Amino acid sequence: MKNVEDGEESLRKMIAERKEKLNPEMCSCFIDAFLSRKQNLEESGIKDSFYHDDNLLYSVSNLFGAGTDTMATTIHWSLLLMAKYPHVQDKVQEELSRVIGGRQARGEDRKNLPYTDAVIHEIQRKANILPMALPHKTSRDVTFQGYFIKEGTTVFPLLTSVLNDESEWASPHTFNPSHFLDAEGKFTKRDAFMAFSAGRRMCLGESLARMGLFLIFTSLLQHFRFTPPPGVTEDDLDLMPTVGFTLSPPPHELCAVSRQ
Ligand code: HEM
């Protein structure tokens, strides 16, 4: 609880600083945009909108909460999987060197990096970091595929069942980037890729997360080769997740060897 309170306190400070410097003509972040809308509504005499201080604090706190652990855990998985499957890492590094060389990757490079794109998707499928997404409550009685669900029932979307569905994936329990490649090696989208869930309440940060994962993963693999530490083999690297709010890889030591 102490950490939650400290977190809220620093967000309150951040919000107060942005409030002081607010220039509605030059909004540079979510807080500015929220405050500027709040100001507009108040100036037009609307005082009971959803744009109030508590909603701003909890929205910012939700964005941090939802966006930090998820990203860090996925990057942890990506390094472990690259160290465990060096032949996959070889192919990513070959593709990166051939297509973009030494310069930093940009969002638009993704379409020219089908293997790398497939590997990132497969990392997310295999890592399955939010196996039960988030719980939802039905707002009215529903009949879904013949099942009656009463209003007020808590529903967990089991993403694991889709990400490991044997009728969807050639080898659901194996790390296999070909799940996202066609016969010509082109990237292929899969409806059963639901790491960000589905429907109206699916991940709000999906496009930010996808861009972040692409830029961080490519940059790390351009600069470093990830290997098990001396005396440890690839087979020794354990993929059994530890259970928490997200499914994280078990703690590992890895070597990051500079490629420069
Ligand atoms: C690898 C990264 C991420 C993964 C795998 C992920 C996955 C998910 C999943 C499975 C949900 C639950 C959807 C549902 O309720 O069915 C969710 C919700 C959410 N995510 Fe993400 N997420 C990631 C990164 C982010 C980032 C970077 C942000 C924003 C900065 C973010 C913001 C949110 C928010 C606000 C919700 C709640 C949406 C709602 O309830 O309407 N996520 N995410």
UniProtKB/TrEMBL annotation:
Transmembrane segments: none
Keywords assigned: Endoplasmic reticulum, Heme, Iron, Membrane, Metal-binding, Microsome, Monooxygenase, Oxidoreductase
Subcellular location: Endoplasmic reticulum membrane; Microsome membrane
Record's bilayer topology term: Peripheral membrane protein
Superkingdom in the source lineage: Eukaryota
SUPFAM superfamilies: Cytochrome P450 (SSF48264)
Cofactor: heme
Key word Heme present: yes
GO BP, one annotated term: organic acid metabolic process
One term under GO cellular component: endoplasmic reticulum membrane
A Pfam family this chain is assigned to: p450
Example of a GO MF term: oxidoreductase activity, acting on paired donors, with incorporation or reduction of molecular oxygen, reduced flavin or flavoprotein as one donor, and incorporation of one atom of oxygen
Residues noted as binding heme in the record, renumbered to the chain: C203
InterPro entries: Cyt_P450 (IPR001128), Cyt_P450_CS (IPR017972), Cyt_P450_E_grp-I (IPR002401), Cyt_P450_sf (IPR036396), Cytochrome_P450_fam2 (IPR050182)
Main localisation: endoplasmic reticulum
PANTHER family: CYTOCHROME P450 508A4-RELATED, CYTOCHROME P450, FAMILY 2, SUBFAMILY AC, POLYPEPTIDE 1
Family classification: Belongs to the cytochrome P450 family.
Protein name in UniProt: Cytochrome P450 2K1-like
